[in-house]
Amino acid sequence: MDELTRLLLDAQQGDRLALAAAIRLSQPDVWRLAAYLVGAGEADDLTQDVYVEMFRGLGRFRGDSSGRTWLLAITRHRCIDARRRRQRRRIFVPLTDEHAQLAVAPAPDASVGLDRLIKRLNPDRRLTFVLTQVLGCSYDEAAKICRVPIGTVRSRVARAREDLVAALRAADAI
Q1: pLDDT, tens only, 132-148
Q2: Residue 167: exposed, middle, or buried by beta-carbon count in 10 A (0-12, 13-18, 19+)?
Q3: Using alpha carbons only, what angle is made at residue 157 by residues 156 and 158, rounded to the nearest 5 degrees?
Q4: CA dihedral 113, 115, 120, 123 (to 10 degrees)
Q5: Is the distance from CB of 9 to CB of 60 less than 8 angstroms?
Q6: Helix (H) or strand (E) holding 39
């Protein structure tokens, strides 16, 4: 049994130090996943929401999957909720031709960072790519977090890599 899972099971029995240690141990991965899925500006608040939900659901955690898998699944769900709320609140403002050009392509002298390219990926591909390539989850663990077959994770990661290579080539051509 991994350390985080053990800490969560101990916290379930009322060990407050184990709860604090579990949060400290898992917080970087929870925050990074949230930052990639909803943006760094929302990641702090969303991370707090994840731990509130974790605390409320701690009694239901059985340890069937790892604590990391459980927390990253909660993070995924909270990010989906946040995106839905954001879409409902979105106000569309017509762009001028000049703004539309800026939104499509960066200026020739702008540097293109990998984080920015990852954020442009299709949401499903971004999720599986970040889980496996950034956070280091196994494909099996990512499949459990996403609730999809492992083959779906493999294909999404492969397509995300193709999308990133194409975006890098396009950026080099500018």
Answers
A1: 999 999 999 999 999 99
A2: middle
A3: 90
A4: 170
A5: no
A6: none
Question: How many DSSP H helices and E strands does the chain contain?
Answer: 9, 0
DSSP 65: S
Show the tokens assigned to 11: 């916290």
- Residue 64 to residue 1: CA distance in whole angstroms: 10
Three-class secondary structure of residue 148 per DSSP: coil
| Type of residue at 140 | D
Q: What does the alpha-carbon distance between residue 134 and residue 32 come to, in Å, rounded to a whole number? A: 9
- Report the 3 state secondary structure along 86-145: HHHHCCCCCCCHHHHHHHHCCCCCCCCCHHHHHHCCCHHHHHHHHHHHHCCCCHHHHHHH
Per-residue pLDDT of 83-128, as tens digits, reads 888 776 654 445 444 444 434 444 443 444 788 889 899 999 999 9
Q: Give the tokens for residue 158.
A: 């492969």
Over its C-alpha atoms, the chain yields an Rg (Å, rounded) of 18
End-to-end CA distance of the chain: 50
C-alpha 121: how far from its chain's center?
Answer: 12
Class of residue 90 by CB neighbours under 10 A (exposed 0-12, middle 13-18, buried 19+): exposed
